[in-house]
Specification:
The chain has 25 helices and four strands. It has 668 residues and is mostly helical. The strands form two sheets. The protein has a two-stranded antiparallel ribbon. A two-stranded antiparallel sheet has the order 3-4. The chain starts with a strand and ends with a helix. It comes from Medicago truncatula. Pfam families: ALIX_LYPXL_bnd, BRO1.
């Protein structure tokens, strides 16, 4: 324990505590880890990781030797080494198991009972001790600032909050793991880390209180902040007074925290009493001040071994409280004549916390560190594969939704003959690009006249093929007759195989060709018949440009009402909105692919010491926002399609009613 003091507007009450670092024995990390790499991976891998092994070795050596005595450098060393340990933990199983790194034993001594030590063959003790020392250094940094200045008190408060955050991180992430080891020390326990966290918060809040007094804040504000200082000290004192910590700390620790608790309770009563006096609530003021005097009197009974500055602060505060109490009693006896309530009936003093532990998860995040990056254990590789499958499933599902939405729009609009009907009505209808290219290809080939020429060529080719087929058939028949003649003439001397055997394959192929020619002739006949039937319609293919031959839809045919323009305008606006939604879907699909490309959680898997399921759940949540955007896009499209359908229905209904009215008028 180290102490520091400075004078302030509230006297010498601000003597504060810092924690000494834990001590350790020398450990050789290099050789056991290198042997593990060479045995389980390869000698080449061990050579490739030589720099990382040397870096880790140097960090441990600097930790042991205090190579740079400055506190900021010491703080940075502990942070860097802790991150390196996180990388080491996920790649090297350190224990007494035969297949593990079993030649490493970490030894650390208790910070408050240096003769007691913990010795474990696991990395949890090493990480916990480093966290403890990081918190200790932060507390020592807090004592280095000049708390006679506003900025000095602010910096000191931040340092104590960092110390509280480090002790809290130790309590939440390492203490329980250390406690299951073969030997432990109490300074790394959940109880001790929790007590030190509250002590550091109390000192951080105390710095804020000093600044509040220096700024001349109202008594009510000062009372709330002072009371919170006392509450933090009360929590630390409660932990110190019970097992297992009650017999572990020096008596001076308990006395110090006990006096601080009393001082800041009394200070809160004193400041609150000033506010009550201004409100002329004299009875409660008297009760509060009497309670403060009682607490200070009781604290002084157990003040043996306390720092002289604290005793002096108690005496000065007691003088101020008694002076105000005497004044309040006289005024009450002479003027107010109020009944003073008993202390037990008073409500708790209001408190306001101005500090909180620093969030150390970001400071100590090792997910972006590159040490031992090439070593990927089998369990991490399997976890990465599983996560990749989960992401692929999300991407596939969302991409299918986007594609189905686009296809649905195309089909529904086609059923409603949109936007073709509107384009025809306005007389500026254009052919789709693919269709226009096909028409141009037909025109280049000669149009309908060129088609007639090709039909004639088909007839000529069919005639030639038929003639070749007949000639071939006649040759085969001739060969068969000659074979029969020679076989009859020469008898057994004619040893050549029979013609039917030699020409069997040729006859089979000839029959297939004959069948194909017959089918082709029938197909050609159907095509020619279709061309003749649609000759008049096909004549428009000669029009240049082809758009000049397209029919236009006259307005009277479509509507008999002057509201037609409004309906058409509404339809066009809805179609433009559909087009915008389609463009958004294309962008969302690109965004999905880009998110997947950048989604590399291997570093987080390698540094994770918790459940993979929790990590997966957190990482997969990244895709929730874009999934919601896709759902909203599809829902907006459904609303637009429904709106378009309603417009068309209303247009049809109005036209029907107008047509009926015209017929009725004509009849009359």
């Amino acid at each position: 324990m180290a102490a520091s003091q400075s004078s302030s507007a509230v006297g010498n009450t601000n003597i504060m505590l810092a924690i000494f670092e834990k001590k350790t024995n020398t450990v050789d990390l290099y050789r056991p880890l290198r042997n593990y790499i060479a045995f389980h991976y390869s000698e080449r891998e061990a050579q490739n990781l030589e720099d990382d092994l040397q870096t880790l070795k140097q960090l441990r050596s600097d930790l042991e030797r205090h190579s740079d005595p400055s506190l900021p450098a010491r703080r940075d060393l502990f942070i860097t080494y802790f991150k390196a340990l996180c990388q080491t933990e996920t790649r090297f199983p350190i224990s007494s198991e035969p297949d593990h790194v079993n030649a490493l034993t970490f030894v650390w001594f208790d910070a408050f009972k240096p003769k007691q030590k913990a010795s474990q063959q696991n990395i949890h003790l090493e990480k916990g001790a480093v966290l403890f020392n990081l918190a200790a250094v932060y507390s020592q940094i807090g004592l280095t600032f000049d708390r006679n200045t506003v900025d000095g008190r602010r910096q000191a408060s931040h340092a104590f909050m960092a110390a509280a955050g480090s002790f809290g991180f130790l309590r939440e992430n390492a203490s329980m793991k250390i406690s299951v080891g073969s030997s432990t020390t109490l300074d790394l326990s959940v109880e001790c880390a929790g007590m030190l966290e509250k002590l550091m918060l109390a000192q951080a809040q105390e710095c804020v209180f000093e600044n509040t007094i220096a700024k001349g804040s109202t008594p009510g504000v000062c009372a709330k902040i002072s009371r919170q200082v006392g509450l933090y000290y009360e929590e630390a004192l409660a932990a110190l007074n019970v097992a297992p910590l009650s017999q572990h700390f020096d008596k001076s620790w308990i006395v110090h925290v006990q006096l601080k608790t009393a001082i800041f309770y009394a200070e809160a009563c004193y400041r609150y009493g000033l506010e009550l006096h201004e409100k002329e609530e004299i009875a409660e003021e008297i009760a509060r001040l009497k309670s403060a005097v009682s607490v200070l009197t009781e604290a002084k009974k157990n003040s043996r071994g306390a720092a002289a500055q604290l005793l002096d602060a108690i005496n000065k505060l007691e003088v101020n409280i008694n002076r105000n109490l005497e004044r309040a009693v006289k005024e009450n006896d002479r003027v107010y004549l109020m009944r003073v309530p008993p202390a037990s009936s008073l409500s708790p003093l209001p408190a306001f916390a101005m500090v909180k532990p620093m969030v150390m998860s970001e400071v100590l995040d090792a997910s972006k560190e590159k040490m031992f990056a090439s070593l990927v254990p089998d369990n991490s590789a399997k976890a990465l594969s599983r996560y990749t499958e989960m992401v692929d499933g999300i991407i596939r599902t969302q991409a299918e939704k986007l594609q189905q939405a686009s296809e649905l729009t195309r089909v529904r609009l086609r059923e409603m003959e949109l936007p073709d009907s509107i384009l025809a009505l306005e007389g500026n209808f254009t052919l789709p690009t693919n269709l226009k290219e096909d028409v141009e290809a037909v025109q280049i080939s000669g149009g309908p006249a060129g088609l007639e020429s090709e039909l004639q060529q088909l007839k000529d080719l069919r005639r030639v093929n038929q003639e070749l087929l007949v000639q071939t058939e006649e040759l085969l028949q001739k060969e068969s007759r000659e074979d029969a003649q020679f076989r009859s003439q020469f008898g057994t001397k004619w040893t050549r195989p029979q013609s039917s055997t030699l020409t069997k394959n040729l006859l089979d192929r000839l029959n297939r060709f004959a069948g194909n020619l017959k089918q082709a002739a029938e197909s050609d006949a159907r095509i020619e018949r279709s061309v003749r039937e649609h000759a008049a319609l096909m004549a428009i293919l000669d029009a240049r440009p082809i758009e000049s031959a397209l029919p236009s839809l006259a307005r009277p045919i479509m509507s008999f009402d002057q509201n037609e323009d409004a309906i058409v305008g509404s339809l066009k606006q809805s179609l433009r909105q559909l087009e915008t939604l389609g463009a958004q879907r294309a962008g969302l699909e690109d965004m999905l692919r880009e998110m997947k490309r950048k989604d590399d959680i291997l570093p987080k898997l390698m540094t994770s010491t918790g459940s993979y399921e929790d990590l997966f759940k957190k990482e997969i949540a990244k895709y929730d926002h874009i999934s919601e955007d896709i759902a909203q896009n599809i829902e907006a499209q459904e609303q637009l399609l429904l709106q378009i359908q309603v417009c068309l229905y209303l247009d049809t209904l109005v036209n029907s009613l107008l047509h009926t009215r015209k017929k009725y008028v004509a009849t009359i």
